[in-house]
Amino acid sequence: MKRLIAAAALACLGTTAFAADPVVGMYKTQPGDEGNFAHVEIYECDGSICGVMRKAFDASGTSIKSDAIGKRMIWDMASKGNGKYSGGKIWAPDRDKVYKSKMKLEGSTLSVSGCVAVICRSQSWTRVK
User: Fold this and answer.
1) How far is CA 27 from each of CA 45, 62, 88, 114, 123, rounded to the nearest angstrom?
2) Separation of first and last alpha carbons in the chain
3) Among candidate residues 50, 46, 66, the one with its CA nearest the CA of residue 103
4) In the chain, what are the domains?
5) Which pTM value belongs to this model?
6) Considering Cα of 96, then 98, then 99, then 105, what sign does the dihedral take?
7) How far from 101 is each of 4, 54, 87, 105, 119, CA to CA, in Å?
8) Could you read off the pLDDT of 61-95 as tens digits, one per residue?
């Protein structure tokens, strides 16, 4: 019995605790074409990084209703290390377009960029505390 307990203790010590990806959290987007912005929750999903719009705001910062709340904005994003992510898609609600995208996390700023054919856009999102 003592050997079983010792073996179990060693097995626990040998396991690696999995920490959340550094990009996981809530971010404030830059204003879109109409001046509105959003809070996007980024999380791990099925081995990749995803994001969902959780709140929408008008240009003055007042919370507004939006059909986009709860919609997926980021999917299939893969970590490439050193705060870089690529291979995913980002949906821009202001233009209702899906962009092949990449992201880079530096401190509390997430730079997102994407292209549809030759049309590209980029924004800097700020982590919400």
Assistant:
1) 17, 16, 17, 17, 12
2) 48
3) 50
4) 19-127 (2.40.128.520)
5) 0.83
6) positive
7) 50, 20, 7, 14, 12
8) 999 999 999 999 999 999 999 999 999 999 999 99
